[in-house]
Amino acid sequence: MTERLGELALPVLVTSGRYDEMSEAVVSPLVAGIRGAEWVRFENSAHFPPVEEPDRYRDVLTTFLDCVEANPA
User: Fold this and answer.
1) CA distance 51 to 3
2) In the chain, what are the domain boundaries?
3) DSSP-H helix ranges across 1-73
4) Quick check: 47 and 15 in contact, CB under 8 A?
5) Is the pTM of this model over 0.70?
6) Engineering a disulfide at 19: which of 12, 43, 46, 58 sits with its beta carbon 3.0 to 4.6 angstroms away?
7) In angstroms, what CA-CA distances link 61 with 28, 31, 67?
8) CA neighbours within 13 Å on the CB side: how many for 24?
9) Among 51, 50, 44, 13, which Cα is nearest to 31's?
C-alpha cells in the first residue's frame, strides 16, 4: 500500500486524532513514505478533527495552505 507514496510530488498534510482508528502505527508509514509530508495529530479528537476541534483544525489547515502558497514548487 505504501510503495508508491514516494511518487507524490505535492505538499501533503496528514491529520489524525489521538483517539483515531488510524493509529500512529498506521499513519507513521504513510507520512514517512511521502517526501516532505507534514503530520498533525489532534489530541482531543478521534477520526474527525474538523468537527471535534474545528478552531485548531482551521488554524492548522490555514497555516499549511499559507505555507504552500508562499512556497510554490
Assistant:
1) 31
2) 11-70
3) 24-33, 49-52, 54-70
4) no
5) yes
6) 46
7) 19, 17, 10
8) 5
9) 13
Provide the percentage of residues in the chain whose pLDDT is more than 70.
Answer: 97
Q: Which of 56, 1, 67 is nearest to 34 (CA)?
A: 1
Residue 43 corresponds to which cell in the numbers above?
489530541
Per-residue model confidence (pLDDT) at position 2:
81
The span from the CA of 2 to the CA of 32, in Å, is: 9
C-alpha cell at 32: 514517512
Q: Which helix (H) or strand (E) holds 14?
A: strand 13-17
Rounded percentage of the chain residues whose pLDDT exceeds 90: 92
